[in-house]
């Protein structure tokens, strides 16, 4: 029996081919940050129609869902590799603090969606004056 040298890259190619026929969903990346008044969530949604995006805030959890459609004049192509996705997506993320969900707003510009959610009054920092007694 001949000894065959193992090539890890061959095994990785086989692993990649295993998932070729399985539809994979699109999961948008999110950046979450805050200042003293608001929580901000930015998500890159290039190629997504903003009218097909739904944003909800409930129990301090932000949910973004939508649909990305790829329209093409040619229906059938002889793909060697297909990584551009189309279809629905969903993402939820727990927010770092209590927020005022009814005052949330979202803006879409150049494929970047920015959601601004005001913090609840009870979590905003309050300045307490110090009285000096003599």
List the helices and strands and how they pair.
Blueprint: H1 8-18, E1 30-34, E2 38-44, E3 53-58, E4 61-68, E5 87-94, E6 105-109, E7 112-118
Antiparallel strand pairs: 1-2, 2-7, 3-4, 4-5, 6-7
Beta-strand percent range: 25-35%
**CATH T-level topology of the domain at 23-70 and 85-123:** Immunoglobulin-like
Overall morphology: elongated
Secondary-structure-based class equals mainly beta
Helical content stands at under 10%
Low-confidence segments? none
Largest sheet data: 4 strands, antiparallel
CATH-level-2 architecture of the domain at 23-70 and 85-123:
Sandwich
Please provide the ordered H/E string of secondary-structure elements.
HEEEEEEE
Please tally the helical runs, counting DSSP H or I stretches of 4 or more residues: 1
Can you count the beta strands?
Answer: 7
- Radius of gyration using CA atoms only: 23 Å
Strands of the largest sheet, in order across it?
A: 1-2-7-6
Tell me the span between the first and last alpha carbons: 97 Å
CATH class of the domain at 23-70 and 85-123: Mainly Beta
If you average the pLDDT, what whole number results? 81
Question: What would your notes on this structure say?
Answer:
The chain has one helix spanning 8-18, and strands at 30-34, 38-44, 53-58, 61-68, 87-94, 105-109, 112-118. The model has no long low-confidence stretch (mean pLDDT 81). The protein has one helix and seven strands; from the N terminus they run H-E-E-E-E-E-E-E. The chain has 134 residues and is mostly beta strands. The longest helix is centred in the N-terminal third of the chain and has 11 residues, at 8-18. Strands 1-2-7-6 form a four-stranded antiparallel β-sheet, with no helix packed on it. A three-stranded antiparallel β-sheet has the order 3-4-5, with no helix packed on it.
